Amino acid sequence: MGATQRACEFAVADLRNLWPAFERLNQSRGTAPYGELEGEGTEDERWRSFCPDFERQRAPSPAVVEPTASARGDLARAIIYMHFVYGLPLEPVVTDPNILLAWNDADPPDREEIAREDIIEAVQENGRNPLVPRQ
To answer: Rg of the Cα trace of the chain?
Structure first.
């Protein structure tokens, strides 16, 4: 097994790369990159009832998805971690890598994210995401 394939297997299994999600919303995102969109909230009735902050733009191509305000920092820290630890590229994941730093600053780690990181660090025994402080 080559080094790249082995790194990919570790990346796929890393708990920092796994998040609970609404299946329909996750399927709607597909492989569209994260980015910032004009306006606030969804106009789509399918999502409004349970995720009013969901935003997805299909046209003009390519599609872009803006994560909810409360998830942006968590998402940014996970993407940055995966980039530096496993060498995964940022370009297909976000429209502009600089927004990750802005999202990190605007939505700092909360108690829930810190507790999650504490558990992941204990279970995986491969260090900590340095962007998430200890409690």
So the answer is: 16
Look up the pTM and report it: 0.83
Residues lower than pLDDT 50 in the chain: none
Q: Tokens 């940055």 map to which residue?
A: 80
Residues near 97 by beta carbon (within 8 Å), at least 6 away in sequence: 90, 91
**Do 124 and 14 meet the contact criterion of CB atoms below 8 Å apart?**
yes
Let me know how long the chain is. Answer: 135
CB 103 within 8 A of CB 76: yes
The structural domains of the chain, with segments of one domain joined by +, span 3-124
Q: What is the pLDDT of residues 27-59, one digit of tens each?
A: 777 788 888 877 665 555 655 555 555 666 666
CA distance linking residue 46 with residue 115, whole number of Å: 32
Q: Is the dihedral of CA 88, 93, 98, 100 positive or negative?
A: negative
